[in-house]
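Researcher: Re-running this chain for the archive, since the previous output was lost when a drive failed. Same request as before.
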Amino acid sequence: MFPTVDRFGAPATAALALGVGTGCLRDSVTPFPAGLEPLGTCSADPLPPTEADPTPQGFNTDFGEDDTWKWATGCGYLDADVATVWQAIQDPEVVIDRRKVTEWTVTATDIEPEYDVSFRVHLLIDDIITVEYDTDWRQGVWEGTVDAPVSVAARFQKTDGLALIELLEGSVLLDTTDDGGTAIEMVEHLVAPGYSAEELAVYLDDVYQSVLARAQGEPLPTYD
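Model: Regenerated structure tokens:
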């Protein structure tokens, strides 16, 4: 069982304090389409290979906004195998937005038994208004086996909570490199006022840094 975690003094989330009307304060349920297919491909500049390392450890991001949503992508490499990296992203503390979230609780696990890993996290942001919502995660082997994964895919989505967040969805793809490390690609989409696409990119980089720390046996990064 995962504990409830409190982070008081988290930065204010301006996105969730703008344009708030009575209708926006109601809760809404967002259906989570089945599957693990990535939401897109990484548009960030690839890390250039070096003579010593064709897949140098690091991570680049790209972000923007169009008529549909705000978006961010990120891709890079980790000097750890897919099994190790996958173990890291199975921990909700590694993948939640610890810069923004004041309190989080894993409310259910194995919520979708057809996938290798699934869980639901209830998140609370203590801002000008109190924002609460649920995010569902599902993960599974894309190629290989659970004991020896070659590729792993994951999807996450806000499924319930404040209607002001019309859409929050993302995907993660882990793939084995020729030298036995891991290539990682992440995509996130958001439809909500105020919160910038650049902040989405910061979140993706935070996830990468947290995965890297966990894979290396180091403490997770902290944010004032």
